[in-house]
Amino acid sequence: MAMGREGEVQGDLLMSWAEMPRSPGHVFYDRLQLLLTEAGFDAFVEEICKPFYAPRMGAPSLPPGRYFRMHMIGYFEGLDSERGIVWRCSDSRSLGDFLRLGKRDKVPDHSWLSKTRSRLPHEVHEKVFQFVLKVVAERGLVKGERIGVDGSTMEANAALRAIVRRDNGETYREMLTRMAKESGVETPTIDDLIRLDRKRKGKKLSNEDWTSKTDPGAKIAKMKDGSTHLAYKPEHAVDLDTGVIVAAPIHEADTGDTATLDPTLREAEKNLSAVGLAPTPEYPCDLVADKGYHSRDVLKDLDDGPWKTRISEPRSSKGYSRWHGDDAARAAVYGNRTRLKSGVGKEAMRKRGEIVERSFAHVLERGGMRRTWLRGRENVHKRYLVHVAGYNLGIMMRALFGAGTPREAANIRFALLIIIQAADMIAFVILAASDAETEALILAVTCKAD
C-alpha cells in the first residue's frame, strides 16, 4: 500500500444540501428555541420594533429577534463584551441555529448590535423583559407574595484616573502636579506624584467635585470587593418563592438605598401588574430588605399601602428612640419590628439572603455583567434588562427540563433506582444516563432476600 501524501485540495463547485455538514445542535438552546417559538417571541418583538424602522426604504436590518437572542447568549455563555458575543456565535453551529441563521448567512457584526441598541428605545427593552416575565408567570413561576430587594455595584466603562474637577476641568494628575510644584518639586516624576498622593492629608474623591468626561452618569463608589471605581448600582426586586426577578432598575452608584427603594418598587409594581399580580392595600405583598433600606420616612410612606414591610432594623446606639410626637412613624416602625421578629419574618429574611444574592451572582458574576463595556446608564440598562430576561428564562428552563444554563444541561446526569422484590430475592436496577436522549447504562444487582 502506498503512503498517502497531503496535497492541495480543490474546492467543490457545487454541493447538495444533504452533503453539507450539519450540527446536532445543543439540547438547551433547542428547547429554549421551542419555548420562544411557542410564545410568539419573534412576532412580538417585530411588532413593537416596527415604528422605529422605515416601512419600505433601505436595506433590511438586523432582525429584532436575533438581536435579543444574541444578548441572551451573552448571559448564558457569560460574555461581557459584544465582540465576545459575536465571536462565540460565529464559532458555534448550534448557536447559529438558535439565531435562525441560514447556511450562507453570517453572524451580525458587533457594530450591528450597537446600531440596533441605539435605534431601539429603552421602552422596547422593557417590553421584552415584561414579555419574558409573562411567559415565566404562565408557568406558575411568579407568585407575587414576597418580594426581596437589594442592590449591588457594577464597574462602569470609564477610568478613574481620567476624572476631572467639575469647577475648572482639571484632571487628577494635573492637580497632583500642581500640588507637587507648590511643595517645591519643579519637575515631579510619576513616583513623586504617587508618593505625594499617598501621604497627603484630606485625600477624598467626592462626586460633588469630580466627574468623568467619557461617562458622566457613572459615579465614584466602593465596589463589593473593597476597591474604588466609577460604577453603577443595579437593584433587584426578586420573587422569594421562585427566584424570578420582577424588576431590575439601574441607579446612580452614589444614591442611598432609601432613595432608590421607591423607584424600584414602582417598577416592580408595574411589572407585576402586567402579569396580573399587582399588590393592593387589601392584598399587600411582603417587602423584605436589609437594614440599609430602613428609615422612618420609608416605613411611614409604605405603611397601610400595597407593600407590607419586613425590613431589618439597625441597632440603635442609644438603645431607645425619640419620636417627637410623630405617632405615624412610631406605629410604622413598631409594626415593621413586630412583623420582622415573627417566624414568618425570620424565614423571609433567610430567603432574602439566599435568593436575592443568588440573582446577583448569576447576572453579574456568571453572566458577565460585573464589568460593563457600554457607556451611559440608559445604554447599560438596555443590555442589563435582556440579561435579566435570560436569567428568568433560565429559571423556567430549570423548572421544566432540570437545567437552567447550557453548561448545566451538558453536565446533567439522570439516575433511576428500581427495586424488584420477589419471594426469595431482591433485585436492584440502576439506570443512569448523561441525558434523556443519550446512551444509558443499566446495572443490575441481584441478592437473596435473607
Write up this protein:
By secondary structure, this protein is α+β, with helices and mostly antiparallel strands. Among the domains are: about 160-215, no CATH class; about 415-450, no CATH class. The chain contains 15 helices and 13 strands. The chain has helices at about 25-40, 40-50, 65-75, 80-90, 95-100, 110-120, 120-140, 170-180, 190-200, 255-275, 295-300, 325-340, 345-365, 375-400, 405-410; strands at about 145-150, 155, 165, 210, 220, 230-240, 245, 250, 285-290, 305-310, 415-420, 425-435, 440-450. The strands form 3 sheets. Strands 1, 2, 5, 6, 7, 8, 9 and 10 form an 8-stranded mixed sheet that branches. Mean pLDDT is about 85; it is low at about 435-445.
Search tags:
single chain; 450 residues; alpha+beta; eight-stranded mixed sheet; three-stranded antiparallel sheet; 43% helix; 16% strand
Topology:
Layout: H1 27-39, H2 41-49, H3 64-76, H4 82-91, H5 93-98, H6 110-119, H7 122-138, E1 146-151, E2 154-155, E3 163-165, H8 172-182, H9 190-199, E4 210-212, E5 219-222, E6 228-239, E7 245-247, E8 250-252, H10 257-274, E9 285-289, H11 296-302, E10 307-311, H12 327-341, H13 343-366, H14 377-401, H15 406-411, E11 414-421, E12 425-433, E13 440-448
Parallel strand pairs: 1-9, 9-10
Antiparallel strand pairs: 1-6, 2-6, 3-4, 5-6, 6-7, 6-8, 11-12, 12-13
Helix pairs in contact: 2-7, 3-4, 3-14, 7-14, 8-9, 11-12
